[in-house]
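Need a sequence for this fold. Nothing fancy.
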């Protein structure tokens, strides 16, 4: 089913008087009359709609005419959107031979190639819905683009640049066998820009309903969790659930953050900017997350050096930064972290060292220093199985006193729990654990 844009508003009639904007293959042009929140429409001239059949080439021989599919590398149709500083903010490559649509972005000023991680959508399952569609729409939703083929939303692409407003568009395709029968779109397409409200009511409701349902379930995950079917690695929640953070793997195993904030009136779920650090983790990583006020810390093990790194976001508007806290755990160590506030900020990070003993690493800003120190209270326990899960919890018992509860599984596969009471007066003198209990972990 193709879109039919309503005519009637004075602005649309004025646009019609100007004539349609035509964009030829292998050409670029400025995007006309664009404002954030608009829809860019690319319409094929073909009366049969877009051609999603894999392209082919013909050759003649003594045996007659033969047809062969094109090599996968010779089949691509690309739509590229650029901002005012020539950053490629959305690159969409439709590759029918491979059966995929690849989304990406590229920086204009970089010491490397500039390409970000690819986001891949398989055409399988969409072909029937897309049959007969004659246009592609890119709907700007402020923090991401909704990509729509006909009336089918195929992807949400989270913006990766602070300047996310497109000003220029380029249309290109492989041309070695660019006959009319092989092209996805026509050689010349019509470019227009309009609002969602310009659509007929039933079409507007279809597009908007998909957007709303995606936002309600956390569409910020669409480029990461929901697309890859990954589980959250760590979560944070504060202000009675009005602020939520979910940490998960995105494309290419890059660590990503999905954010929920009641402060936003629309698009309450959106993608954070953690992915900009390009932290690549193994398929089954261990990370820990803590939060106080609006400051967030993440801890993970570098898969190359093996050391534990700390990621820090010091406020809502702050950027993520990374540092090493010089911990060298055993490979695939579990990590746990806790934080509490009384006379200052107190952080504890737990991990398993290379001799398979649990270690506690402390930072107590109340002492006037932000230095990290190791304690010795866990050396009497272990060694324990490599990668044993570690769980830590801090309980506030009374003013300036907290109780730390730490659990893990020992060599007998039993759940071991230790607890320790800490007061601000004795924070620099690490007390021994005051209770140890073993619980059968079979249940």
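Here you go.
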């Amino acid at each position: 089913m193709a879109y039919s844009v309503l005519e009637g508003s004075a602005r649309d009639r004025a646009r019609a008087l100007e004539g349609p904007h035509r964009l030829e293959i292998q050409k670029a042009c400025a995007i006309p009359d664009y404002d954030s929140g608009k829809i860019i429409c690319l319409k094929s001239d073909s009366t049969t709609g877009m051609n999603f059949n894999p392209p082919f080439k013909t050759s003649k021989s003594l045996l007659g005419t033969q047809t062969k599919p094109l090599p996968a590398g010779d089949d691509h149709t690309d739509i590229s959107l650029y901002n005012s500083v020539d950053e490629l903010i959305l690159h969409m490559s439709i590759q029918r031979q491979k059966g995929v649509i690849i989304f990406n972005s590229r920086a204009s000023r970089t010491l490397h190639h500039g390409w970000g991680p690819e986001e891949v959508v398989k055409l399988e399952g969409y072909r029937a819905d897309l049959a007969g569609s004659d246009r592609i729409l890119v709907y700007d939703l402020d923090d991401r683009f909704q990509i729509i083929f006909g009336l089918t939303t195929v992807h949400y692409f989270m913006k990766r640049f602070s300047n996310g407003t497109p000003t220029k568009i380029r249309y290109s395709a492989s041309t070695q066998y660019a006959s009319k029968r092989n092209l996805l779109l026509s050689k010349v397409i019509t470019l227009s820009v309009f609002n969602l409200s310009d659509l007929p009511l039933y079409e507007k409701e279809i597009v908007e309903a998909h957007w709303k349902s995606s936002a309600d379930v956390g569409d910020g995950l669409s480029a990461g969790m929901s697309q890859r079917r990954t589980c959250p690695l760590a979560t944070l929640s504060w202000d009675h659930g009005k602020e939520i953070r979910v940490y998960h793997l995105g494309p290419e195993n890059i660590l990503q953050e999905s954010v929920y904030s009641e402060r936003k009136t629309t698009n309450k779920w959106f993608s954070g900017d953690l992915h900009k650090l390009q932290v690549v983790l193994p398929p089954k990583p261990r990370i820990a997350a803590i939060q106080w006020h609006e400051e967030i810390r993440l801890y993970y093990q570098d898969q190359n050096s093996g050391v534990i790194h700390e990621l820090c976001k010091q406020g809502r508007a702050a950027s993520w930064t990374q540092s090493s806290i010089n911990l060298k755990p055993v490979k695939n160590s579990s990590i746990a972290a806790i934080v509490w506030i009384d006379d200052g900020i107190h952080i504890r990070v737990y991990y398993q060292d290379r001799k398979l003993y649990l270690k506690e690493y402390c930072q107590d800003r109340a002492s006037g220093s932000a230095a990290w120190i190791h304690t010795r209270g866990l050396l009497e326990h272990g060694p324990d199985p490599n990668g044993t899960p570690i769980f830590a919890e801090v309980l506030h018992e009374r003013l300036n006193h907290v109780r730390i509860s730490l659990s893990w599984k020992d060599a007998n596969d039993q759940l071991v729990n230790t607890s320790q009471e800490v007061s601000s007066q004795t924070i620099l003198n690490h007390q021994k654990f005051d209770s140890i209990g073993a619980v059968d972990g079979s249940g």
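For context: The mean pLDDT is 77.
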